Amino acid sequence: DKSRLDLHVFFLLSEFSRTCGVSSPVCVPGISAFAAAALVLPGNYPYYLDLIQSLSVGPVLIGLAKFGIAFPVSYHTYNGIRHLCWDLGKGFRLPDVNRSGYVVIGLSVITSIVLALI
């Protein structure tokens, strides 16, 4: 039944949008605090890199953390481009909106994986 599939598509894209809206007020102050701490705390980049390596958390956890940092940045970048296209009056038909939503999610996942592997 195609109508059931359409309903799931709508909710998936809607949940991504809601998650970003809820996470932004938490992430922005957190990232800002981290950046401010990096400016005022003693030590330099190699010191903190050695500190993280001494925790022995393993490459899988570090990769997941890097993906967790890269995904919101990638998603917001690609979704911003999507919104700029809407500002130009492009992609307002519902099939185009759904397709571009999945393109944004796919590109965000691929970009985040690539960035996490760096």
From TrEMBL:
A Pfam family assignment: Sdh_cyt
Topology in the lipid bilayer: Multi-pass membrane protein
Residue spans crossing the bilayer: 20-40, 60-78, 99-117
Gene Ontology BP terms: mitochondrial electron transport, succinate to ubiquinone; tricarboxylic acid cycle
CDD domains from the UniProt entry: SQR_TypeC_SdhC
Cofactor(s) listed in the protein's UniProt record: heme
Protein's pathway: Carbohydrate metabolism; tricarboxylic acid cycle
Example of a GO MF term: electron transfer activity
Cofactor binding, per record: The heme is bound between the two transmembrane subunits.
PROSITE patterns the UniProt entry points to: SDH_CYT_2 (PS01001)
InterPro entries: SQR/QFR_C/D, Succ_DH_cyt_bsu_CS, Succ_DH_cytb556, SuccDH_FuR_B_TM-su
Location in or out of the cell: Membrane
Signal peptide: none
One Gene Ontology cellular component: membrane
Binding site for heme: H76
Keyword annotations from UniProtKB, A to Z: Heme, Iron, Membrane, Metal-binding, Transmembrane, Transmembrane helix
The protein's assembly and partners: Component of complex II composed of four subunits: the flavoprotein (FP) SDHA, iron-sulfur protein (IP) SDHB, and a cytochrome b560 composed of SDHC and SDHD.
PANTHER family (UniProt xref): SUCCINATE DEHYDROGENASE CYTOCHROME B560 SUBUNIT (PTHR10978), SUCCINATE DEHYDROGENASE CYTOCHROME B560 SUBUNIT, MITOCHONDRIAL (PTHR10978:SF5)
Function comment: Membrane-anchoring subunit of succinate dehydrogenase (SDH) that is involved in complex II of the mitochondrial electron transport chain and is responsible for transferring electrons from succinate to ubiquinone (coenzyme Q). SDH also oxidizes malate to the non-canonical enol form of oxaloacetate, enol-oxaloacetate. Enol-oxaloacetate, which is a potent inhibitor of the succinate dehydrogenase activity, is further isomerized into keto-oxaloacetate.
Protein name: Succinate dehydrogenase cytochrome b560 subunit, mitochondrial
